[in-house]
Design brief:
The chain is mainly α. It has one domain. Helix content is 79%, strand content 0%. The longest helix has 26 residues.
């Protein structure tokens, strides 16, 4: 059961990435907030190649990393649509600094705090991502550019299942107050984001099955 829940959570996240990429190409934009993307791909690189997890999580990390590389490509390809008044060179500089900062914080912070599996980093950045998705929704003026109900639901389910896995089966969660708070906070923001997307579908008289 432990492995099933963990793998199911990973699969939902893989589906999230696939729909982000698909919607990004369809709308000619990128579908993950930039700072969340920097944190995400840093975590995946570290725990795939620097401090690799054990299988099956390692194989899931590989897939996540590969899919995030595509989303990074979409950012560089389509960023001018979201930031028409900002020079590309400045955006590239911000991205590189954010990526280097995220990588350093996750790697060195994890080692310093004894979190060599990146558990706290994973859920902290997941909370950051959940908040940033909501901000992106409003920044894009409620136009579902690069966003869909599938992205919202699969992200919520993927993180919820991973949270359940850690709460039930990992000692670090059972001896921590911080992690359960993170689990609840992430789910709350994910649910809010899903409801915002769902409401926008209704306002647009759009079928839920249209990506």
């Amino acid at each position: 059961m432990q492995t099933i829940i963990l793998v199911a959570g990973g699969i939902f996240w893989i589906l999230t990435y696939i729909f982000i990429i698909s919607k990004g190409y369809k709308d000619k934009t990128y579908g993950m907030p930039v700072f969340a993307l920097c944190a995400n791909i840093s975590w995946e690189f570290i725990f795939s190649f620097v401090l690799p997890h054990s299988p099956p999580q390692l194989y899931i990390n590989y897939l996540w990393f590969g899919l995030d590389v595509v989303i990074v490509f979409q950012f560089f390809k389509y960023h001018t649509k979201e930031f028409p008044n900002v020079q590309s060179l400045k955006l590239y500089a911000v991205f590189i600094v954010a990526l280097a900062s995220a990588f350093s914080i996750i790697l060195n912070g994890g080692i310093a705090l004894g979190d060599i599996d990146g558990v706290y980093a994973a859920f902290c950045q997941n909370l950051l991502m959940s908040v940033l998705f909501i901000l992106m929704f409003f920044k894009r003026k409620k136009v579902l550019r690069g966003q869909s109900i599938f992205i919202a639901v699969f992200k919520m389910l993927g993180t919820a299942l991973t949270s359940i896995h850690f709460y039930l089966f990992e000692p670090v969660s059972q001896s921590s107050i911080v992690l359960p708070v993170l689990f609840i906070s992430i789910f709350t923001f994910d649910l809010l984001y899903t409801l915002l997307i769902l409401n926008q579908y209704k306002k647009n008289h759009k079928s839920l099955f249209v990506t």
